[in-house]
Write a structure and sequence with these properties.
Number of strands: 0
Distance between the termini: 56 Å
Radius of gyration: 19 Å
Largest sheet: none
InterPro entries: PhaG_MnhG_YufB
Helix content: over 70%
Number of helices: 4
Organism: Methylorubrum aminovorans
Transmembrane segments: 6-32, 44-64, 76-93
Protein name: Monovalent cation/proton antiporter, MnhG/PhaG subunit
Keywords: Membrane, Transmembrane, Transmembrane helix
Shape: elongated
């Protein structure tokens, strides 16, 4: 790396945050594969993606702040967009699927609110 040396303690924190975020994202992806119904499957990736992205972006902001010598908050905007759009998308998909299942009179459809 051509630039200032990163302290070992900071490198370890960045590694832990990044691997933790990747672990949460992997857990969400595995939930998408392993769970059986649509309503179960839609929940796991939403939580995994949101928390995983938050941890990865925190590690990225820490690394860039230490390398550039000032606080870097560019990645916080990415985190804000992910935090706002992922749950909204999950909610819209779930409502559309519930409406379709109720219209088709599927036995596994969620009850009317």
């Amino acid at each position: 790396m051509n630039g200032p040396d990163l302290p070992v303690w900071a490198a370890w924190i960045v590694v832990v945050l990044t691997l933790g975020g990747a672990g949460f994202a992997l857990t969400g992806a595995l939930g998408l594969i392993r769970l059986k119904t649509f309503y179960e499957r839609v929940h796991a990736p939403t939580l995994g993606a949101t928390l995983g992205a938050f941890l990865i972006l925190t590690g990225s902001m820490l690394l860039l702040s230490l390398v550039e010598g000032h606080i870097v908050l560019r990645d916080a905007l990415i985190g804000l967009f992910i935090t706002l759009t992922t749950p909204v998308t999950m909610l819209l998909l779930s409502r559309a699927a519930a409406h379709r299942d109720r219209t088709e009179k599927n036995p596994g459809a969620p009850p009317e609110p």
